[in-house]
Design goal:
GO terms for molecular function: peptidyl-prolyl cis-trans isomerase activity. The structure is a single chain. The chain is α+β, with helices and mostly antiparallel strands. Helix content is 32%, strand content 21%. The strands form two sheets. The chain has an eight-stranded antiparallel beta sheet. A two-stranded antiparallel sheet has the order 6-7. Helix 8 crosses helix 9. The longest helix has 33 residues.
Length: 325
């Protein structure tokens, strides 16, 4: 009995501490050096618990990984959801795919020197009101035309023609022929165009009629004397457009979509439009603190100066225009 008891006695050499690491957090379990004093039963239980803890911690990570992969897989592996097709760009559909029903030409000069001819294709099907108005002003059917009228604004993305004046000879000629040129129909057509095409409509080469002025400030109140009494009246700041000004886009100009109705595109003579865009203009100075202060207090000189920004120094005129057969 004495020999068998000595055989069951655990070795006296101290065991090194064992460390067990988990997946989420790291925990260290140390077995004391004096393990030889533990009874046989307690030693077996402690070793078994440590072994189970080690196996359990190593099994957690594969279990979590398999659950994550199961979440990524569809319910039915054989059934895959079809990808939604990309929506086609409406910019191409509206600009290049429009049907050209009429062709008009504009001959342009800079300071009296001819620089070439611009041929414009009009969209009579998609913009009948705007294209009809432009063609009437080109061939003079409205009593007045764009002949001898100037381009008044040159921007980095587009050039703008001044159109007809709402006063003076132009207005008298239009009135004598019974053509009052109402703009309401143009606005309605512009609204329909905006609903039909959500993308950029004024792309490069586009020709558009300006139908509204988005930069026009709200009216101001003022006191006026009427019949011996003071009354409050609204003073309109700026002027409404008359639907005769038009633009030609040098580049894609989404800033024009809020005010211009696309009626056609340049078919030939884009080099002439680029020549117009190279004419020197009055430098815009809206970033000046003096200009901003004058604009803030309502100084009329700031309003007059702002109207002169981006105006060409040279006279860019339409010397001749009309419709082509």
């Amino acid at each position: 009995m004495q020999s068998s008891a000595q055989f069951l006695q655990p070795p006296a050499t101290p065991l090194p501490p064992k460390q067990i690491q988990g997946t989420a957090t790291t925990k260290t379990f140390s077995i004391p050096n004096q393990c030889s004093k533990f009874p046989r039963r307690e030693l077996a239980i402690g070793t078994s618990s440590s072994l189970l803890l080690l196996l359990g911690s190593q099994a957690i990570e594969p279990l979590n990984l398999s659950r994550a992969r199961a979440d990524e897989l569809p319910d039915n592996p054989d059934k895959t959801e079809p990808e939604e097709p990309e929506k086609p760009s409406r910019k191409v559909d509206y600009s290049s795919d429009q049907n050209v029903t009429k062709r008009a030409f504009l001959e342009v000069s800079v300071d009296g020197e001819p620089i070439g001819r611009i041929i414009i294709g009009l969209y009579g099907d998609s913009a009948p009101v705007g294209s009809s108005r432009f063609s009437n002003l080109v061939n003079g059917a409205a009593g007045v035309s764009y002949r001898r009228k100037e381009f008044v604004r040159i921007m980095p993305n587009y050039v703008q023609h001044g159109g007809l004046r709402s006063y003076g000879v132009d207005a008298e000629l239009a009135k004598s022929t019974g053509r009052t040129n109402p703009i309401d129909n143009l606005v309605d057509e512009w609204e329909k165009q905006s609903e039909m095409c959500q993308g950029t409509k004024n792309v490069a080469r586009s020709v558009s009629i300006i139908v509204r002025d988005p930069s026009k400030p709200p009216p101001k109140t003022k006191l006026v004397a009427r019949g011996g009494k003071l009354e409050i009246d609204l003073e309109e700041v700026g002027k409404d457009v008359n639907g005769t000004e038009f633009t030609i886009a040098l580049k894609d100009s989404p800033e024009l979509d809020a005010s211009a109705l696309v009626i056609g595109r340049v078919l030939e003579g884009m080099d002439v439009v680029e020549r117009i865009g190279q004419v020197k203009t009055v430098k815009e100075n809206t970033s000046s603190p003096y200009f901003r202060a004058a604009k803030l207090i309502g100084d009329k000189r700031a309003v007059v100066a702002e109207r002169g920004f981006n105006r060409p120094y040279s006279k860019v005129k339409i010397t001749n225009c009309g419709l082509m057969e």
